[in-house]
Write a structure and sequence with these properties.
The complex is a heterodimer. Chain A has a single domain, classed as Roll (Ubiquitin-like (UB roll)), CATH 3.10.20.30. In chain A, 21% of the residues lie in helices and 29% in strands. Chain A has 2 helices and 5 strands. Chain A has a 5-stranded mixed sheet. In chain A, a hairpin with a 2-residue loop joins strand 3 and strand 4. The longest helix of chain A is centred in the middle third of the chain and has 11 residues. Chain A is globular, with a radius of gyration of 12 Å. By secondary structure, chain B is an alpha/beta fold. Chain B has a single domain, classed as NAD(P)-binding Rossmann-like Domain (Rossmann fold, 3-Layer(aba) Sandwich). Chain B is built from 13 helices and 8 strands. Chain B has an 8-stranded mixed sheet, with helices on both faces. In chain B, strand 1, helix 4 and strand 2 form a beta-alpha-beta unit. The N and C termini of chain B lie far apart (51 Å). Classes of the chains: A alpha+beta, B alpha/beta.
């Protein structure tokens, strides 16, 4: 089963897209590893991840269907 | 008194609003830091709505490339201080409210001296050094903070430190440490569509009005992101970050000692 990953702000400059669907790798930590491998620029980028609209601070198991969002800080005003 | 009812009639007649909410607005004190793209619509709506005491902090001058989004200002204002000019314009909009200009940079001393005089602090700045400084001051002084930020075609809104259920979270729960200087492009480099700060600033003004009057549900401990190209809103609930307190100044002394320009460059 697939999960969806959303990218916000200047992260899309790195990924070249604002969403991607992948096979569920099982945990949020595995998603992060996949992201950094697929888009090496993300490894050095600052962003928070959410799983189904709840911010993640520790690795979590991913059930389907799930949406992961990657949010960078914005500075402009 | 007749002018009061007539001026605010459209919102006084609202369900769950009435004279009570209008009086709360009249008695409220709000400090808006930054009179730029976000600050202009925030100020216009708060003054129009009748927020009784408003402070505006900005040491910057109006320039030609501001006019694309900073809608309080005109061509004749180029070169003038933003907070002073904003006060002049806003007085024409509503003389029932008091608006004060602070044409200075919001540093630690300013924050410690002035934040206590206000009920709500609004972050309408355009850089991380100011954002972290304001956030940390609000945590120390226990002030609700209405945050807004923009980038290209997108914007973010959040309410930190708000009174209510659950822990009081801050910007440091989202991002405990500031990004490095070149990690996130500013609008000066990345660009921004003029309406974006208009929309995000208006959302911030909405949250201020809700915080003051107690109507609806405030966006407390949540981060809302708006994307103009797809007219999409996406909201996430914040989680307390274990590292937030590691990087936050725990006392006034630690706050004063932090070099925000340095940690954000």
């Amino acid at each position: 089963m697939e999960i969806e990953i959303l990218f916000f702000g200047q992260l899309t400059d790195i990924t070249g897209c604002d969403a991607v669907k992948i096979e569920n790798p099982g945990t949020t930590e595995a998603v992060k590893e996949w992201l950094c491998k697929q888009y090496p620029g993300l490894a050095g980028a600052k962003f928070v991840m959410s799983l189904n609209n709840q911010m993640i601070v520790a690795p979590l198991k991913i059930n389907e269907p799930s949406i992961i969002a990657c949010m960078p800080p914005f500075s402009g005003g | 008194m007749k002018e009061f009812f007539l001026r605010y009639q459209r919102q006084i007649i609202l369900d769950n609003f009435g004279i009570k909410a209008q009086e709360k607005l009249s008695n409220a004190k709000v400090l808006v830091i930054g009179a730029g793209g976000l600050g202009c619509p925030i100020l216009q709506y708060l003054v129009a709505a009748g927020v009784g005491n408003i402070g505006i902090v900005d040491d910057d001058a109006v320039s030609l490339n501001n006019l694309q989004r900073q809608i309080l200002f005109g061509q004749e204002d180029i070169g003038k201080n933003k907070s002073v000019t904003a006060v002049e314009k806003l007085k024409q909009l509503n003389d029932l409210v008091t608006v004060i200009a602070y044409p200075e940079y919001c540093n630690q001393v300013f924050a410690l001296e002035k934040f206590s005089n206000y009920d709500i602090i609004v972050d309408a700045t355009d850089n991380f050094a100011s954002r972290y400084l304001i956030n940390d001051a609000c945590v120390l002084l226990q002030k609700p903070l209405v945050f807004g930020a923009v980038s290209k075609y997108e914007g973010q809104v959040a309410v930190f430190n708000a009174q209510g259920e659950g822990p009081k979270l801050s910007y440091r729960d989202l991002f405990p440490e500031p990004p490095k200087g070149d990690e996130v492009m500013s609008c000066a480099i990345a660009g921004v569509l003029g309406v974006i700060p208009g929309i995000i600033g208006t959302l911030q003004a909405t949250e201020v009005i809700k915080l003051i009057t107690g109507i609806g549900e405030v966006l407390a401990n949540q981060l809302l992101t708006y994307h103009a190209l797809y007219q999409r809103f996406y909201t996430i609930a914040l989680t307390p970050h274990p590292q937030a307190s590691l990087f936050s100044p725990g006392s006034v002394e630690e706050f004063i000692a932090l070099n925000y320009q340095e940690i954000c460059s």
